[in-house]
Amino acid sequence: MISSTPTLRAGELSSLVDQCLSQRGYFLAASETFGTPQYLVDEARIHAQAERFLRAFSHPQQPTRTHYALKSNPSLPVVQTACRAGLCADASSGLELELALHCDFPHIVLSGPAKSDSELELALDHADRVTVHLDRKSTRLNSSHLVISYAVF
User: Fold this and answer.
1) What per-residue confidence (pLDDT) applies to 114?
2) Is-contact 143 125, C-beta < 8 A?
3) For strand 130-134 and strand 67-69, is the pairing parallel, antiparallel, or unpaired?
4) What is the DSSP string of the chain?
5) 115: exposed, middle or buried (C-beta count within 10 Å: 0-12, 13-18, 19+)?
6) Strands across the sheet containing 67-69
7) Which residues of the chain have pLDDT under 70?
8) Which pLDDT score is estimated for 15?
9) What is the C-alpha to C-alpha distance for residues 91 and 89, in angstroms, rounded to an integer?
10) To the nearest whole number, what is the mean pLDDT of the chain?
């Protein structure tokens, strides 16, 4: 039977707690300066994890693109770090597409249902970097300038 609950290796949780406690002064100073609640972003860790993921799936004979799902955390520092780390972007809304374009991702997939005309027009305006992922039922786009991909299940 496969367990759906992730397990930690021995010492993994205590190591994480020790790391947080070692930075206690930094966290307290940030809360005094900026108030609470707040999110602190460890850009070096995000960058390292992205590089680790890219290495794990890279293969010289099978080019791949790894996309950061903007809906997972659209915070500007996180998104900018993902872009600088060499990831591409997965946007599911017009706002996410605008954010990905603003951050200058090299490749963006616009996915999900119910795209407005303005979202599709924005994708078309940036067809050199944007792939629109539509289901086969969509017939609103028909342009040789736009890459359209279809999900096959």
Assistant:
1) 80
2) no
3) unpaired
4) ---SS--PPTTHHHHHHHHHHHTHHHHHHHHHHH-SS-----HHHHHHHHHHHHHHH--TTS----EEEGGG---HHHHHHHHHTT-EEEE-SHHHHHHHHHTT-S-EEE-SS---HHHHHHHHHTTTTEEEEE-TT--S---TTSEEEE---
5) buried
6) 67-69, 88-91, 108-110, 130-134, 147-150
7) 1-4, 6, 135-153
8) 84
9) 6
10) 84
Structure tokens at 31: 């809360």
Amino acid (1-letter code) at residue 138: S
Residue type at position 145? H
Identify the residue whose tokens are 């736009």: 146
Residue type present at position 46: I
